[in-house]
Amino acid sequence: MLYGSIEAGGTKFVCAVGNEDLEILHRESFPTTVPAETMAKVIAFFKKFETELVGIGIGSFGPIDIHEESPTYGYITSTPKLAWQNYDFVGAMKKEFSVPVAWTTDVNAAAYGEYVFGHGKGLDSVVYYTIGTGVGGGAIQKGQFVEGFSHPEMGHMLIVPHEDDSYKGNCPFHGNCLEGMAAGPAIEKRLGKKGADVPESDPFWTIEADYIAQCVYNTTLMLSPDVIILGGGVMKQQHMVKKVHEAFTNLMKGYVKTPSLDEYIVTPALEDNAGTMGCLALARKVALSA
Amino acid sequence: MLYGSIEAGGTKFVCAVGNEDLEILHRESFPTTVPAETMAKVIAFFKKFETELVGIGIGSFGPIDIHEESPTYGYITSTPKLAWQNYDFVGAMKKEFSVPVAWTTDVNAAAYGEYVFGHGKGLDSVVYYTIGTGVGGGAIQKGQFVEGFSHPEMGHMLIVPHEDDSYKGNCPFHGNCLEGMAAGPAIEKRLGKKGADVPESDPFWTIEADYIAQCVYNTTLMLSPDVIILGGGVMKQQHMVKKVHEAFTNLMKGYVKTPSLDEYIVTPALEDNAGTMGCLALARKVALSA
């Protein structure tokens, strides 16, 4: 018995299969090009395991249609990646594999991985952010994704520009929203080099930490979760979590008594496996409830 | 068979009893002074109906302890109203009445009222804000309050100061957070008169609408609810909803396709009864599940 996982990101697709204990047995990545090409590789990957496959979990870049009663349920909808606009992802998988398919956003899948296996284990309410090429967020409360007319798009929340930051932001919609100011491309355009090449001593990291702390502050006030997990490339800078803690404390000014910051604002326990583990766990959930 | 409702606000307590159909039969208000005085009136009110009372729903000003396993569950905790700090509200009611008691924030109760009887009826995900003496928010998804380590404190989210507004904000914690810039006292301190006396033509309302729209924008991105209900004194200005719609459209710039704004950003269907109706519905829920 095997579970399948598809982490469908804007740059690459990571496919994996796991056993009953959700141990990852095989994993392969394919570049995200056009559906015909990328999906052929995805389907070929899972065809090798078809006889044992009992469920597939997909965490996809978005926006996506998550409403089961909608005629376009399972589609990627208005993505700027034109080749993937209105692509029937779940339908493509269901056509090839007669197993239940779980369908959510890539960041929700990572949140679910941490909820089941990582820093959210045993907690009621978990929020996960990825701060990298873009900024995305997902929230889970008592096993349910926080959602309504659609899935959240937390990365585009408003932030207050830092007084020492003259950058105007690069979000094509909102300019200086969180993603426009704090995602990897904004760092690179602002400083002329990638974040990974910006030394710890650069004063910019104080500005970046302030933006991330504003996000964590708003999340605390809006959702009051048990834990906020910060993933993605920017948070691989080891010094960032502490800077975010400091900036968060300065913003909150003691108004809300959160759990200890070392347990409340953390990086992913599963590191880069959160998405795959979340998709496997969702595959198991959908298979068991089918 | 009667259900009891206590809307415990910072200015007044509204007590009510309703029948099986949650029709309000009796209602009385008492000023919020000190617990000994106010609660004596609350208890005397319900004693008149004690033989028929089967459950009580309380929506209280906060912060409050909502964790059932906590030793201070049912307490008002670190409120600036010193006489009510660490007050065991649920304990005081349970001591006098041997019926199940539901316990949540005042704004969650109003959200629940709209969820069961108002603009949230039949929807999965509802957010309610009150914009008056303070700003508070509550969210419900599939019958559960959105919460984690505590209840939300949405009114203190960060907002970007409007370019035509030089007011520095009056939140004692955060200065120019949403409550510090947009609640009734901030309007009065800024303009030298109460919001109710500021004419529709005053350009300030465009600024106020921008702040409320920032709140609605962030809420849309964080929770993606089915409806956002705006209550409280400020929204009694009939012209405000339309101004908020316009400001929201300007902020969102088409990024997220929300439901039609006339159905998505609305004032309470229950008007000032949302809190009482919510408490009655919570009383019924807790009585039926006891």
UniProtKB/TrEMBL annotation, chains A, B:
GO molecular function: ATP binding; fructokinase activity; metal ion binding
Catalyzed reactions per annotation: D-fructose + ATP = D-fructose 6-phosphate + ADP + H(+)
Pfam family, one: ROK
EC number: 2.7.1.4
The UniProt record lists the keyword Kinase: yes
Domain of life: Bacteria
Cofactors (names): Mg(2+)
Alphabetic keyword roster: ATP-binding, Carbohydrate metabolism, Kinase, Magnesium, Metal-binding, Nucleotide-binding, Transferase, Zinc
Keyword field contains Nucleotide-binding: yes
Family in the record: Belongs to the ROK (NagC/XylR) family.
Full protein name: Fructokinase
Protein source organism: Enterococcus italicus (strain DSM 15952 / CCUG 50447 / LMG 22039 / TP 1.5)
Lineage of origin: Bacteria, Bacillati, Bacillota, Bacilli, Lactobacillales
Gene from which the chain derives: cscK
